[in-house]
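Could you help me review a protein record that somebody else here produced? This is what I was given.
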Amino acid sequence: MNKLSIFDTHCHLADEKYQKHNISEIIDEAEKAGVKNILNVGYNMPTNHLLLQHLVRFPSLFGALGLHPNSNEDLNEENLKWIENQLTNQKIIAIGEIGLDYYREFTPKKSQKYWFKKQLLLAKKYNLPVLLHIRDAFEDAYKIVKETKINRGILHCFTGNYEIAQKFIDLGFYVSFAGNITYKNAKWKEKWGKLIEKVPVEKIVVETDAPYLIPEPLRGRQINNYPQNIVYIVKKIAEIKKMKEREIAEKVYSNTLRFFGFPNR
């Protein structure tokens, strides 16, 4: 049987946790598992710079540039202008990782909201989708997204409830699930089960958020997460949806291509 085709919509190959890794080997292992493409996502200036180098070296990689709400020292006009200057690169297909994080408030809320809105408007100017990091801030994030009339984005590593998901879906967003949906904690299992059951499969994409969020059964056995581990996320969604793994993989892959405008880009 042919292997699955999967697009990892959120991975941090430029993260410092991979400094001593051979990125080529990581991508090779991912391809063996059926990962056709990886969206290499920046969240501060060091990762934004490094991922551009990766895009030149590896044909299967695409990139997203952005400033995470916790990247306090990088949130300034000069860096935003630098990001804008890179958007003519055809391999940059999104703005992200951007958003609001009230759980770890390294950046004051007022500043977070200001830079979040600035980056949303940049995405709108260049007709690019956005990858949203939202933690304990869904109400404010939704309000800002609606005000800026953004209608194309992904709720990265979504942790909210179905009502929140539906509000963003109604705006045109997709919901992305990562390795935390595989965790064995009973409370989490119930949460993800109810949520994933309700979210339409046509609005689901998948990610690893590697090197973070190692899925079961690899938690505690690996130091870092890798794109190849996305198969466990597909498997869990299929289990919850009571669908065949290959069917979920095909639908989610089709969703991702449609969302990013392939092959029409």
